[in-house]
Amino acid sequence: MSSSTINSTTPVLISGAGPTGLFAAILLTKLNIPVRLIERHLEVSPLSKALVLHARTMEIMAMSGVIERFLVEGKHLREFHIWQGGKQAAIFPVLNNKESHYNFGLFLEQLRTTALLTAELNDLGVQIDRGWELMDTKVVEEGKKSWVETTIRRAIQGTNVRSTESKVLGVVEQDAEEAGKQYETEVVRSEYLIATDGGKSVVRHKLNIAFPGRTLDNNIIIYDGHVESDIPFDCITVVNGDNGKMMVAFPLNDGQTRIIVDNGTLTPEEHMALKPEDLTLEMFTGMVQAIIGPTIKAGSFWREMPPMCTLQQVVKVKQQQQQQQQQQQQQQHKASKE
Ligand SMILES: Cc1cc2nc3c(=O)[nH]c(=O)nc-3n(C[C@H](O)[C@H](O)[C@H](O)COP(=O)(O)OP(=O)(O)OC[C@H]3O[C@@H](n4cnc5c(N)ncnc54)[C@H](O)[C@@H]3O)c2cc1C
To answer: Which of 44, 273, 300, 323 could form a disulfide with 228 if both were Cys (CB 3.0 to 4.6 A apart)?
Structure first.
């Protein structure tokens, strides 16, 4: 049940503190435009989706004066290694846009990108307003004046995030309140709303804005963890398996490797039937070995195994460790500021 509603104003409300929302907040703050950045999660997601920053992204970040920390922390990668089964077949230059000063791919997990952008924003004196979820928004017009009115809410205890949510264009079934939870609600009046609330944007659905394009029905499995292999996975490595399947390995920044295995095309029904517990370490190891032959030693993967993972469901991997690492880094950053 909602316990209270308050009203507030801000020149710019930004909804969603992923990389896009954070970067928008940094730019506007540097232009002395006050922002309020809300994020429904209480913590940064431990799921590292993106791994690489491309040349144009780095150029824009450089123009905005926020590239240094990224260049120091990320890996500069320029090569793509192709293997056919257990044998190296070719090496290609990759991501080396010669017209750019940044003629490499900068490898940095999204978790770190988000942490570094958050640190940049904090240095400018702005904190993310966590726990607030955008529920609804509309443009109000009165005579010659107009503004945006956005309803946000936050659970007084615990998190806002519900386990089930379904969104159909124009209809967002997010209003259900969880039994026993108390929410505070706020109506924010702003000149602008920047909707950086991700691919499933509530704002897009509420305003009935279509998302043209098509959905790929490829099923992939992602593993982030330790791998022991005779193939050196120290650069982007594509392995074309003798069984006709493909896998790609990316070095991560902490000595671990991301492995993406092509699991073929699934029907929507097959996709829906997938359960995290269906994927075991043994099964994944078997899939990799079937692609690259005996090169990877049996039992060479370790760490808790991510559940079945598709592009739609990047799942919990090394969650605790990443959270601890991030807390340590935040503490170190705070200590260095004091
Ligand atoms: C497996 C995978 C690999 C990828 N690899 C790459 C890559 O190598 N390079 C690359 O450039 N991109 C890559 N991407 C894409 C990249 O991850 C996205 O483009 C990026 O996350 C988009 O950032 P964003 O800030 O727009 O949205 P998001 O990262 O989705 O952030 C949206 C934020 O809004 C918050 N939010 C959502 N709804 C609400 C609400 N109602 N109220 C308040 N807050 C809300 C969410 O909690 C979230 O924090 C990859 C994606 C996947 C899945």
So the answer is: 300
